[in-house]
Amino acid sequence: MGNSNQPIKLENGHTLQTPFSLDKTQHPLKMTNGNVSKTGDLPTDSANGNNETAELDNSAISLDNSVNDGGSPRKKSDIRRRPGRRMDKTKLKRRASINGHLYLRETSSFTPPHASACSVWVTSLVTSNEVLNMLLDKYKVEMSCRSFALFVMKDNGERRRIRDDDSPLITRVMLGPHEDVAKVFIVDVAQTQEISPEVAQFVNLSLAECRAILHQYEQEELRQIRAIRQKYDDMRFYMQHKMKELRGV
């Protein structure tokens, strides 16, 4: 009988410690593909008269052929992966946005929602054209600033254009802090017209109210026409009467 825990040399150059006594001459063990196979019967214990055969479970002492970097063999359970589907690594195609505004890279254009807020840092020395250039550059608009203009729009319907040499910051301060009363909009010049305060007071009226007001204006116009005609008729009468008096003299 050999010494206990005598190492067994494997074909791949590594050694295996056996937890039992082994006689290499009578009961050699052969290592093939990481599995231990028995070529002979194990010795019987003569002291207690029991003939016990040691059976080696291949699954218990099986080794993986691959060896890690440290040189020690790895078990198959160490590299076992969890069952399940792998994550889909397909890249999602997302649309870029500018402050929440949908931006199309193919056409280099975007459509912001109506009355969406656009903010830039300005001073009282920055003119309206400079503010327009800053806004167009910030939101990647490639159109010319001449196509746009800054308008003051009030809640009563009044529209007033801010001149190119005016300061939008000073205009905003003069309008007051309440944006519900008046706001500064960047609009298309070709599609926006100014509305005077006199016209703005009728913008929010209904169609029936506008027709009633228009009827009153027509009646007032007729009265003014009759008054002017009566005035010139009276002047003609007095002039003719005076001319007759002069001829009789």
UniProtKB/TrEMBL annotation:
Compositional bias of kind Polar residues: 59-69
Pfam family, one: RA
Ras-associating domain mapped to chain residues: 118-191
Family matches, as SUPFAM superfamilies: Ubiquitin-like
Record's protein name: Ras association domain-containing protein 2
PANTHER family the UniProt entry points to: LD40758P, RASSF
Stretches assigned to the SARAH domain: 199-246
InterPro entries per UniProt: RA_dom, RASSF1-6, SARAH_dom, Ubiquitin-like_domsf
Residue stretches of biased makeup (Basic residues): 73-84
Any single biological process term in GO: signal transduction
Region ranges (Disordered): 1-89
